[in-house]
Each structure stands twice: as structure tokens, then as C-alpha cells.
What we know:
Blueprint: H1 24-37, H2 42-45, E1 49-54, H3 60-71, E2 74-76, H4 86-91, H5 93-118, E3 122-125, H6 128-141, H7 147-160, E4 169-173, H8 177-187, H9 197-202
Parallel strand pairs: 1-3, 1-4, 2-3
Helix pairs in contact: 5-6, 5-7, 6-7
Amino acid sequence: xxxxxxxxxxxxxxxxxxxxxxxxxxxxxxxxxxxxxxxxxxxxxxxxxxxxxxxxxxxxxxxxxxxxxxxxxxxxxxxxxxxxxxxxxxxxxxxxxxxxxxxxxxxxxxxxxxxxxxxxxxxxxxxxxxxxxxxxxxxxxxxxxxxxxxxxxxxxxxxxxxxxxxxxxxxxxxxxxxxxxxxxxxxxxxxxxxxxxxxxxxx
Length: 203
């Protein structure tokens, strides 16, 4: 049988595609597809460690309270009420600076371990890093911590931080010294009445 030849030729005719009317089922499918496309990933849903840093009296605890309440996060606070060294430190900073910093270092290390084990999104008032990078160096530079104690503290901090991870997000608060003095006075902690202005200026 002879084969029939077919000739192809170009035309200038523009082809159009007829759109089918959207039905409820297709609209539903599109919605599901859209939802799946923008669904949070497992990484986005993972618990976060959020921390607040800043000057003494800058409002860290207040902000921690507000975020914990509004975002339903678990709050972890700086250990000040049960701290056995704070009173002595503010009365004689040179004598008690090393003891206070070691206490905070231990307390914050334990707190970070609990945060990582909790499996919850946590907001933390003050971190382990401010003591090592701000408070201890300032005490040393002001002559309120000996070089021997400072080096000992830094060595211990270096070892401990190999076993912890930094926060996923750090929020830093800063205020002027007059604002800090006013807010410290308003919260009424007796041991802070003797706090030195030069210590506030550098911390």
C-alpha cells in the first residue's frame, strides 16, 4: 500500500487555550497545593533559644515577661534573688568580684543545659556571654578583679562554652545612665543602692 504524504506548513494563526471553569474540587485542590507549598519546615518549627542582653536596669526582665506572656514562651531569669554574693559584691566589689562572676558562670551554664534539654522555645534574661565579654573584663580594667582571678575566670569560661551553644536570637537593650539609675531606683533592690556610676557606665 502506498503511504500517504502529509505536508506541514507554518501558519500565523495564534492558538488559544480554552480555560475550563473553576469547580469547587479544583479550587480546593489549588488551596491544598498552596498550603503545602508554604507550610513551615521542620527546621522552622524547632524550639528556639532567645536571649535578652543589656545594661543593668535596661529593662531585660520586663521585656522577658512581656514576650513570654504574649508569645507563650518559657522564661528563664537571671538568678538575683537567691544569689549569695550580690549584697557583699556591691558593698565591697574588689573583694567579691571573682566570687560573684564564678557564681554567675556556674548558674548560667546550668541554665543553658536546661534550656537545650527542655525541647521548648525559651526566652532567657541575660546570657553566659555578657559576664565573660563585658562584666569580668570591666571589673578587671577597673582594678576590681586581679589579673590572676581574671585569667582563671576566662580559662574556665573557655572550657565551659565548648559544651553549650549560643542563643538562636539575641536582643540587646541599651539605655542612658540617668535612665538606668532611675529604673534601678524604682525596682527597689536594697543592695543596688550603693552601685557605682562608673560601673554602670561600662557595664
